[in-house]
Amino acid sequence: MANPDSRVTIHMAASLDGFIARKDGRVDWMETSDEFIGGESLDPGDVEAFLQTIDCYVMGSRTYETALSFEAKGLGWAYGDKPTFVLTSRNLPRTRDTVEFYSGDLSRFVNERLRPAFGSIWFVGGGTVSGECLRRGLADEIRYSILPVLIGDGIPFFEKLGRDVALHLAEIKAYNSGIVELRYDVSVVTVEE
Ligand SMILES: NC(=O)c1ccc[n+]([C@@H]2O[C@H](COP(=O)([O-])OP(=O)(O)OC[C@H]3O[C@@H](n4cnc5c(N)ncnc54)[C@H](OP(=O)(O)O)[C@@H]3O)[C@@H](O)[C@H]2O)c1
C-alpha cells in the first residue's frame, strides 16, 4: 500500500543541452567557472540541513559504479549514511552497510517497498532509471539543475521516455555559480503498461 505522505523526487544535474554525462560516462564538464552576479550563494550549513530531509536514495548500477569510482579517487561518498538502493541484475561490490541491491519491477519496488518505509525518496540517476521512473508514473517531482555549459552529445537526462509528461513549474533558483535549479511537480497520469 503506497504511503500518501511519501514523495518521489528525481534529481540530476545536466548540461544546458540536456546531457547528464558524456557517452563514455565522464562528468568532467561539471566543474564550471561561471559567475552569475546577483545569483544566490549556497550556504554549506543549509545544504547539510536540506540533505538531512532526504530519507533514501535510489540509483541505477552505472551511477553506482560512477559513485564507487569517485570514492576510489578520494572524492567521498555523496549519499551520507542514508539507505541507498542500487538497481542491478549483476553482482556488484557492496562497499557499505547502507547499500542494498534490487532487481525486478520498479513500480512494485517503489510502491510496496520504498513508499511505505520512507517519506522523501530521491532518484539520483542515471538517465535509464529516471526515464523508467517517469514512464511508469512513479515520480512526484523533478529537480533539474542546469549547468552553464554545452557538451554537444552524451547520455540524455531521460532515456527512452516514449510519451509526453505534463509538468507544473513550482520553483526556480539561480545561483552565483551560474547553475539554475528548476523544480517541477509531475502531473498525475494514467500509465498504460
Ligand atoms: N548529471 C547527473 O546528475 C548524473 C546523475 C546520475 C548519473 N550520472 C551519470 O549517468 C551515467 C549513468 O546513467 P545510465 O543512464 O547510463 O545508467 P543508470 O540509470 O545509472 O543505470 C542503468 C542500469 O541499472 C540497472 N537497472 C535499471 N533498472 C533496473 C531494474 N529494475 N532491475 C535491475 N537492474 C536495473 C541496469 O543495469 P544492470 O542490471 O546491468 O546492472 C541498467 O543498465 C553515469 O555516467 C553517471 O555518472 C549523472
What does this structure look like?
20% of the residues lie in helices and 27% in strands. By secondary structure, the protein is of the alpha/beta class. The strands form two sheets. An eight-stranded mixed sheet has the order 5-4-3-6-1-7-10-9. The chain is globular, with a radius of gyration of 17 Å. The mean pLDDT is 93. Strand 9 and strand 10 form a beta hairpin. The protein is built from four helices and ten strands. The structure holds NADP nicotinamide-adenine-dinucleotide phosphate. NADP nicotinamide-adenine-dinucleotide phosphate binds next to strand 1, strand 2, strand 3, helix 2 and helix 4.
Main attributes of the structure:
193 residues; 20% helix; two-stranded antiparallel sheet; 4 helices; alpha/beta; binds NADP nicotinamide-adenine-dinucleotide phosphate
